[in-house]
Amino acid sequence: MILAIDMGNTNTVIGGIDETKTYFIERVTTDQNRTDTEYAVTIKNVLEMHEIHPSAIEGAILSSVVPPLNSTILRAVEKIVGVRPLLVGPGIKTGINILMDNPKTLGSDLIVDVAAAIHEHPLPLVVIDMGTATTMSVADKQGNYIGGVILPGLRVSLNSLSGKTAQLPYISLEVPDKVIGKNTIDCMRAGIIFSNVDMIDGLLDRMEKELGEAPTVIATGGLARFITPLCRHKIIYDDALLLKGLLILYRKRRLFLFASASSLLRFPFSG
After folding, report:
1. Are 108 and 90 in contact (CB under 8 A)?
2. What pLDDT is attached to residue 256?
3. pLDDT for the residue numbered 263
């Protein structure tokens, strides 16, 4: 089993996974003020909660969109499981051709999502990741990462609505029974939920037109389970998609390092 960690702007996902199953998925708050020891305690508690001994962890990998916290998380993991995690970043072997203006600026979570989706689903495909921001990443029929869309996430939209208006309260996200609300809270919920549903359906329509065929659509992220059942398009929900992608990249990296080491042993004085 490997320890796979996805550090987002709002939440950090901690999971245990191997080729046979996903052992656990937990979400904790991302906090730049926490120390490596505090994160180490959190990781230790998650493992204990699922009755997993640190010795069962063969390795670890980290995907992060919060660079200032990278070294903190790397040290925290090393304190608990005794191994230095691989860090997903520029230069790591993904096997995916990234056809972007500047591939180095592509978020590591996006490429990890697509790597997992390509491994399990037919091309072309679209991966929807609903977190702090909602992202839609597109891979063409040849498996190239060709671009995507970034838009405000549900909670960002909801918090902005409540924070910028005097009489609209902060509310929980729940799916209303009807589009036409009868009170302020139901009106807000209907606006946030159904506008996101129609926005995703509309973007998928446009992407299908540009691709020239209907893509496979996969959704992940903590908020996707609220939205995808309401969409017109067939959308496959996979909460463990990013963890699967991290496992794939971890194995590829280990194979690359093994091959490099074997080459050095065979030709130690080449050049």
Report:
1. no
2. 54
3. 54
| 198-212 CB burial, b ≥16 within 10 A, e <16 | ebbeebbeebbeebe
Q: Is 238 a catalytic residue?
A: no
CA pair distance 64, 87, nearest whole angstrom = 8
The pTM of the full predicted model, rounded to 2 decimals, is 0.87
**Residue at 203 is within a domain:** yes
> Mean pLDDT by 10-residue block, N- to C-terminus, for the chain (271 residues)?
94 94 95 96 97 95 94 97 88 83 89 95 97 95 97 90 88 90 93 95 98 97 91 96 94 66 53 46
Let me know how long the chain is: 271
Both tokens assigned to 195? 């506008």
Per DSSP bridges, beta strands 2-7 and 22-29 are: unpaired
Catalytic residue among 109, 113, 129, 238: 109
Write the CATH number for 230.
3.30.420.40
- Domain assignment present for residue 270? The answer is no
User: Do 81 and 152 reside in the same domain of the chain?
Assistant: no
Question: Helical H runs in the chain?
Answer: 36-49, 70-81, 108-120, 154-163, 184-211, 224-227, 241-266
Task: Answer yes or no: is 252 within a domain.
Answer: no
**What tokens appear for 95 in the block?**
């096997």
